[in-house]
Design brief:
The chain is about 10% helix and about 55% strand. The protein has one helix and 14 strands; from the N terminus they run H-E-E-E-E-E-E-E-E-E-E-E-E-E-E. It has one helix spanning about 1-20; strands spanning about 25-35, 40-50, 55-60, 70-80, 85, 90, 95-100, 105-115, 120-125, 135-145, 150-155, 160-165, 170-180, 185-190. The strands form three sheets. An eight-stranded mixed beta sheet has the order 5-4-8-2-1-10-13-12, with no helix packed on it. Strands 3-7-6 form a three-stranded antiparallel beta sheet, with no helix packed on it. Strand 12 and strand 13 (about 170-180) form a beta hairpin. The longest helix is centred in the first third of the chain and has 17 residues, at about 1-20. The radius of gyration is 19 Å and the shape is globular.
């Protein structure tokens, strides 16, 4: 019996490794808004089917989860290419799974929107999981708008551009051939 238990995981691991990653994430364009209670995320993600046949692939989209106070709500996933709503196949505390269908050699644009609570000290947009992709992202653009009620103490990645206006402060990052080594973390405090 022990022998059978050992063989099953080995076979399932081998079959998992044999599955190709046919729908490649090519690039992403993400807009983040940080206010006194939430991090609001609106991201556009570009996938391409590299095969000459249609594929259906399950995609995992991660978000931060440290404790129940960082819950995610108002989540929506839209296939902007086909103008359809994609329903999550499975929700977990740290992300969602959804099914992406692509015709042969098709490129699709998917928008994921969600609002996440934060603890009043930091907020995180998950980037590091992209380092496990077979290829670097061709391009990643990240825009952060911070409410005037918040003072940013530090960010985990040096921004390419910063500025401010009457609405608050903005930060921009533009990455090419990007394999992230850290998440985008914003440490801050509320102004008195």
């Amino acid at each position: 019996m022990k022998r059978l238990i050992l063989i099953i995981p080995i076979l399932s691991l081998a079959s998992f490794q044999a599955l190709p990653q046919d729908a490649n994430l090519l690039r992403e364009n993400v807009n983040l808004k940080l206010d006194s209670a939430h991090l609001v995320v609106s991201g556009e993600y570009y996938f391409k089917n590299t095969l000459s046949q249609p594929v259906s692939q399950t995609v995992f989209f991660p978000y931060q989860f440290e404790k129940p106070s960082t819950r995610v709500d108002t989540l929506s996933i839209l296939d902007l290419t086909d103008n359809t709503v994609l329903k999550p196949k499975r929700r977990m505390p740290n992300g969602i799974f959804f099914l992406l269908n692509l015709d042969k050699m098709e490129e699709k644009k998917v928008r994921v929107n969600y609002t996440q609570d934060h603890d009043g000290l930091s907020a995180t947009y998950i980037l590091e999981s992209a380092r496990y992709l077979p290829k670097p992202l061709l391009m990643g653009t990240y825009n952060l708008k911070v409410s005037g009620k918040i003072a940013v103490d530090s960010v985990s990645m040096k921004p390419d551009n910063t500025g401010s206006n009457e609405d608050g402060t903005f930060y921009q990052w533009h990455k090419v051939n990007f394999k992230p080594t850290t998440d985008l973390i914003i440490w801050f405090h509320l102004r008195k």
